[in-house]
Amino acid sequence: MTALNHLKRTGARSKRRVGRGQSSTRGKTSGRGTKGQNARSGRKKRPELRDIIKKIPKRRGYGKNRGRTVIGNRPRALPISLTRVAELFDASTDVTLSALAERLSLPTRGGAPRVKIVGGGTISKKLSVKGVPVTASVRSSIEKAGGSIV
């Protein structure tokens, strides 16, 4: 077994020793500036910006955690109750987006308005809903009354 003093260096020295002697370029403060925490070895300064960020409350669903498929500026559908639709339309008529917009005088900005028929009572009329989104409870109510949803 060999001793440590017999080992040979395989490559060049990676770093220059600092803080040795006064005539060299890295003497006295060794390039660390002057006094304080920064001049000490093993210094650990807390990142201030991280403390500020951690104090901000989380909003779930926004920022990095928000899904890439979520479109935040999409206009929401206008909810219309089933009883209101039953009042506006006679039995065995087609309920379409254009017919709803006409009877409810909805603004049509560059096309058909976004409308969804939601629950809110039962109907006895046989309605045929075409191209209008409906909720599950509305679907069952319309089908019970003998209507259809396309």
3D structure, described in words:
This protein has 150 residues and is of the alpha/beta class. It has a domain at 78-149: Ribosomal Protein L15, Chain: K, domain 2. It is built from 4 helices and 5 strands. The strands form 2 sheets. A 3-stranded parallel beta sheet has the order 2-4-5. It has a two-stranded parallel ribbon with strand order 1-3. The model has no long low-confidence stretch (mean pLDDT 82).
How do you describe this structure in short?
This protein has 150 residues and is of the alpha/beta class. The protein has a domain at 78-149: Ribosomal Protein L15, Chain: K, domain 2, CATH 3.100.10.10. The protein has 4 helices and 5 strands, in the order αβαβαββαβ.
List the helices and strands and how they pair.
Elements: H1 48-55, E1 78-81, H2 82-88, E2 94-95, H3 97-104, E3 115-118, E4 128-129, H4 136-144, E5 148-149
Parallel strand pairs: 1-3, 2-4, 4-5
Summary keywords:
150 residues; alpha/beta; two-stranded parallel sheet; 9% strand
3D shape: rod-shaped
Sheet-strand content, in percent, reads: 5-15%
Instruction: List how many beta strands DSSP finds.
Output: 5
Low-pLDDT parts are none
Helix-and-strand structural type:
alpha/beta
Radius of gyration: 37 Å
Order of neighbouring strands in the sheet with most strands: 2-4-5
